[in-house]
Amino acid sequence: MNSWRKSFVSQLLSRDGVIAYPTEGVWGLGCLPDSSEGVARILTLKNRPWQQGLLLVAAEMSQFEGYLKGLDAEYRKVLEETWPGPVTFLVPDNGTAPGWIVGSHTTVGLRVSDHPLVQALCTSVGPLVSTSANISSRPAARTTFGVRRYFGNRIDLVVPGELGQTGRASEIRDLVSGEVLR
Predict the structure, then answer these.
(1) Is residue 31 part of a domain?
(2) Alpha-carbon span 50 to 40, nearest angstrom
């Protein structure tokens, strides 16, 4: 992603913007995690209750240090051995994540992506909200046409790019129990 595009996306997100972007397997919707307005827009777009919480994506594990503070070394090792990749871990919430991210849970969903565009975005702006680009209970968008069909002009930008090769949304695992939830 070139520097003018990074700058444009960064400015857009800093003003509570919502973007759609390709991920490892499906198109995602994102905003900055501290943007209560951006998160509220995403929840409205998806017709999703805040209690479900939202996942965050980063370019590297160090971007999640605040969320990982106090985590046992054995669990950090699991993260280090798995990331980057299409696995989202539900990590015990240490109080760092805003309530609109955690929802009614005691965990926060975190993923370090290996998708080049997601890495470029997160290197530029920091961690992003990452939720599939769909209306709740409907299939996730796999094309820019699908994103536009769901949301029209109600999102601020569709970042051009290609999906990764996984062909599905990221796996979700509980870090402490090891249970695979998706």
Answers:
(1) yes
(2) 8
Percent of the chain with pLDDT over 70: 98
List the domain range (segments joined by +) for residue 142: 3-174
Q: Which of 54, 47, 41, 155 is nearest to 98 (CA)?
A: 54
> Does residue 182 form part of some domain?
no
Query: Could you read off the pLDDT of 109-120 as tens digits, one per residue?
Result: 999 999 999 999
Total count of domains within the chain: 1
Longest dimension (CA), the chain: 45
| 3-class SS letters over the chain | CCHHHHHHHHHHHHCCCCEEEECCCCEEEECCCCCHHHHHHHHHHHCCCHHHCCEEEECCHHHHHHHHCCCCHHHHHHHHHHCCCCEEEEEECCCCCCHHHHCCCCEEEEEECCCHHHHHHHHHHCCEEEEECCCCCCCCCCCHHHHHHHHCCCCCEECCCCCCCCCCCCEEEECCCCCECC
The per-residue pLDDT for range 42-74, each reduced to its tens digit, is: 999 999 999 999 999 999 999 999 999 999 999
Instruction: Give dist(CA 161, CA 149) in Å, integer.
Output: 17
CATH of the domain at 20: 3.90.870.10
Radius of gyration of the chain (CA): 15
Number of Cβ within 10 Å of residue 65's Cβ equals 11
